[in-house]
Design goal:
The protein is an alpha+beta fold. It has three helices and six strands. β1 and β2 form a beta hairpin. α2 (about 75-85) packs antiparallel against α3. It starts with a helix and ends in a 10-residue tail after the last strand.
């Protein structure tokens, strides 16, 4: 055993000496121009504004109002916009049954098209119309995103409908969890989103 260790050590030492003396002379740093460059992976690009239907009340009936959002599928932002109520240009014709929230509700989505909205403490149970506003808004979020038209107002409202607005193919339901209460609403009775 001892002989094989010595042989291995001598072989390794011989290889190291041979490689270090391969005829390449030592040198200093060589200036050769610009540093190497190549393909780089840019950071995440901000998504283009998109339109989504937010449901408010017009003469007591549900009606879609278009809002711009950043990033398709951002359900939390859309729910926050809905709870913020009609903006200045929408308030001329729109009202809401939803309370104005000081804290943003938590939104979760399950695989069976069920949205769960966890409200902050102290929010009273919703009316039937308020539940329909929420259910109809989230039911159409995934399918109403489109390119933002040029005639968008400064407050995010727009007068032009999205070209590809469609009704969600599956049924969606919303489960709202309040402080000591829970309610569920489906999108069965939702009006269609704005059409061109």
């Amino acid at each position: 055993m001892r002989g094989s260790r010595v042989a291995a050590l001598l072989t390794g030492l011989t290889a190291a000496l041979t490689l270090s003396a391969c005829g390449v002379p030592p040198s200093d740093v060589i200036q050769a121009g610009a540093p190497a460059s190549g393909m780089s992976s840019p950071g995440p690009q901000p998504s283009a504004p998109a339109l989504v239907s937010v449901y408010f009340l017009h003469h007591g009936d549900l009606a879609p109002y278009l809002r711009k959002v950043r990033g398709p599928g951002d359900f939390g932002t859309v729910v926050h916009l809905l709870f913020g109520g009609p903006n200045a240009s929408e308030a001329v014709t729109a009202t809401t049954e939803l309370p104005h929230l000081t804290d943003t509700p938590k939104v979760a989505i399950s695989g069976d098209n069920t949205f769960s909205v966890q409200l902050p403490k102290g929010v009273p149970p919703f009316s039937h119309l308020a539940m329909r506003q929420l259910a109809c808004t989230v039911a159409h979020v995934a399918v109403t995103f489109s390119a933002l038209p040029a005639d968008t107002n400064r407050d995010g409202a727009t007068t032009a409908p999205p070209v590809d607005a469609q009704r969600s193919p599956g049924h969606t339901s919303v489960h709202v969890l309040g402080d000591g209460w829970a309610m569920k609403q489906s999108d069965d009775s939702c009006p269609d989103p704005v059409q061109p």
